[in-house]
Amino acid sequence: MTSLQNFAQLLVLGVARGSVYSLIALGYTMVYGVLRLINFAHGDVYMVGAFIAYFAISSWHLPFLPALLISMAGCGVLGVVIERLAYRPLRRQPRLAALITAIGVSLLLEYGGQLVFGASPRKFPSEVLTATSLGALRFLSGALERSMGLMIAPEQLVVIFSAVVLMVALRLFVSRTKVGKAMQAVAQDRDTASLMGIPVDNIITLTFFIGSALAAAAGVLVALQEPQIDPIMGLWPGVRAFVAAVVGGIGNIQGAMLGGLIMGVAEYLVVGYISSAYREAIAFGILILVLLVRPTGLTGKGLIEKV
Amino acid sequence: MRRLLPYLLVGLAACAIGIGSHYSDLASPYLIQLVVDMGIAVILASSLNLINGFTGQFSLGHAGFMAVGAYVSAACTYYLGGFPGTPAEGGGVLGALAGIGIPAAVASPLILLVALLMAGVGAATAGLLVGLPTLRLRGDYLAIATLGFGEIVRVVISQVEAVGGPRGFTGIPRLTSVAWVAAWAAITLVFLRNLLGSSHGRAFVSVREDEVAAAAVGVNTTRYKVLAFTIGAFFAGVAGCLFAHYRMTLHPGSFTFIDSVKIVVMVVLGGMGSLAGSAAAAIILTLLLEVLRTFLGAVTVAYCFAMTIAVLPALTGTRAARVLGVSAVGAAGLAALMTLVVGEGDVGVPWIVAAGVLSACCALASCWIAGGRLRVRGAIIALTAISAFLLVLVGSSLLPGPLLAAKEWVQGNVSQLRLVIYAALLVGLMLTRPTGLLGGQELSWRLLRSLCRPRRKPLLETKGRGLAAS
């Protein structure tokens, strides 16, 4: 394998991983946009998503796509419940109170997950994919290997493909539909949006639903690539995705997508060329560098301070 | 006299712990470990409060500063100290001091003191290095940058083979005792209190309140932010040194972002900008996680929590209701403490039951006196709590099958359950008291007095004034 091929291989793997980070980062950035809250529990919603799909496939013997949809819906509801019970009562309180509550909810989900699902990792039934008709993807993967010497598993193509579909759908939803525009309005100025007759509470609920559903999709997609799931699997991907959202410019949907891709690619390049020990540090290294040069992230607008 | 109370309390606690540690062969190692952990938590929480609470700079990297202090000092005592079982055994500083006639019993504390200062200075340097570039950032961005710093410190440490790398650093001499920890906790609190009472302290608070206005009246805001980071990091480093020389092993996994979060939780739960609150929350949370280890403890804490919820509304009522409410919480806490000390299934059980029933009765009575809808709520909660408590405690043989199975399941899963309860308590406390236990108040005679006085009801007040006007 030539060095160029090696680089391209790492790049593709990085994009596959990065698209998952982007999906999680979208939830962080959307919630931050409307509430100015770092939703620490988001990474654990991602974990719950993987577990719902696990049970849907292994206990109810559902095929992949229905399992994915059930997991997205289930986590969407979970996100809404969390917002309703834990964040809404604190909306007029100091922001730090909501932040600590978010950390509490995150711990609750992690340890509750250990209690309910057991702490030991389980194998995700990723063979469910080969059962479905993904011949086209396998053909594509084979073609890539023959023509360019890139080893890309069909699972990774599924991940990239699903992530792109979801992100395009979200982009269209936010920019073209009335509800999506209402969401943008709430993100810009909650009080004014409310004066314009936008039902702010409903929009926030919807934001949590969509963000959590995207996290669930990310959880299922990661479980396909690395078929090991356990109750604290959401911790580091959650932190990394949050870093990705900040690097891209938090509160900005394109920023989250960009940041996720940067994180994924950087992670694989570091693992491939330097050492896997720095896998976690690289995310934060990029973060600090970006924040020093552009304190509001790559796509962030400069903050205007009014006195 | 007015300012004496905190010193009095700190002094009393230090004396008690000092005397206690003198007779430490009476106490179990477990109990000593618990006290050491509490003291270290107090240092960490109160120093973080200087950054987060008083200066208003949200830092999520305190465990990183602690790690710097712990590893710097541990490496020094391990490689240079000359303690038995380390590479420099027989030589090093200990050997040199012995050469000029200073015995090891005198030399060890001296070495620890130097190590503590080195840990503090090392961590403070790290704080300065982090503070200078990142303080351009604000709010959440600063939080994330400090989180990143903490993680980078951890990754870098785990790459240094001289301090054990990812396997951990073992063989550090045990130099810390309870008295050292208590003394440093007292030093931290007194230092921070005096600092915050000075004009520098006002400057820290002014940065928190309004940075622009502070700069406009001539406060060098950048300087004070960096200063807060440096001082906070210094004490975090000291705490790290005490930790390293008590545990005798260090592991990079003990300084993750979750550990930073735990310190932040102490600060926020105790009340941002309240040293007394941080100290109290540090002690309570450390104790809580230990109490939850036993099954009975878990039940008692859940029960105390129910009591607190039942009683808190009553605390706004008349004096009698408040006194009773406080005593209910106190009795429930006593029950928890007895569980910890006496242990499960011993002679203590009847006492715990008695305390539980007493506190529930107090809660009920206080809600009753507070009147209105509280009576119903208080009655329901108190009765449920009493019956649940009695059922689990006394009737383990009388329990019907499913409940017995539930009890066994709880006993089998205590280690996970305690963290679940911890998290649930965290969320519950934040929802009921978003500004923390003490808010921004400090412990003072006035606060103690106001606790014993009835709070006036604003509604009645306006009514009365209205009548007088007419």
Rough outline of chain B: globular
Rg of chain A is: 19 Å
Mean pLDDT of chain B: 77
Helix content percent band of chain A: over 70%
Q: How many helices of chain A?
A: 13
Question: What is the β-strand count of chain A?
Answer: 2
Rounded average pLDDT of chain A: 85
- String of helices and strands of chain A: HHHHEHHHHHHEHHH
Structural domain tally of chain A: 1
Secondary structure elements and pairings:
The complex is a heterodimer of chains A (307) and B (470).
Chain A: H1 3-35, H2 42-58, H3 64-87, H4 95-117, E1 122-123, H5 128-131, H6 135-148, H7 154-176, H8 178-188, H9 190-195, H10 200-225, E2 228-229, H11 235-248, H12 253-273, H13 279-293
Antiparallel strand pairs in A: 1-2
Chain B: H1 4-22, H2 29-54, H3 62-79, H4 92-99, H5 104-134, H6 139-157, E1 169-170, H7 178-197, H8 199-209, H9 211-216, H10 221-247, E2 249-250, H11 257-270, H12 275-291, H13 295-311, H14 319-342, H15 348-370, H16 373-394, H17 401-412, H18 414-432, H19 445-452, H20 458-469
Antiparallel strand pairs in B: 1-2
Helix pairs in contact in B: 1-7, 2-7, 2-10, 2-11, 2-12, 3-5, 3-6, 3-10, 4-5, 5-10, 7-8, 7-10, 8-10, 11-12, 13-14, 13-15, 13-16, 13-18, 14-15, 15-16
Fold and architecture overview:
The complex is a heterodimer of chains A (307) and B (470). Chain A is built from 13 helices and 2 strands. Chain A is an all-alpha fold. Chain A has one domain. A two-stranded antiparallel sheet of chain A has the order 1-2. In chain A, helix 2 packs across helix 11 and helix 8 packs across helix 10. Chain A is globular, with a radius of gyration of 19 Å. The relative contact order of chain B is 0.12. In chain B, helix 3 packs across helix 10, helix 4 crosses helix 5 and helix 11 crosses helix 12. Helix content of chain B is 75%, strand content 1%. Chain B is mainly α. A two-stranded antiparallel sheet of chain B has the order 1-2. The C terminus of chain B is likely disordered. Classes of the chains: A mainly alpha (307), B mainly alpha (470). At the A-B interface, helix 4, helix 11 and helix 13 of A face helix 6, helix 11 and helix 18 of B.
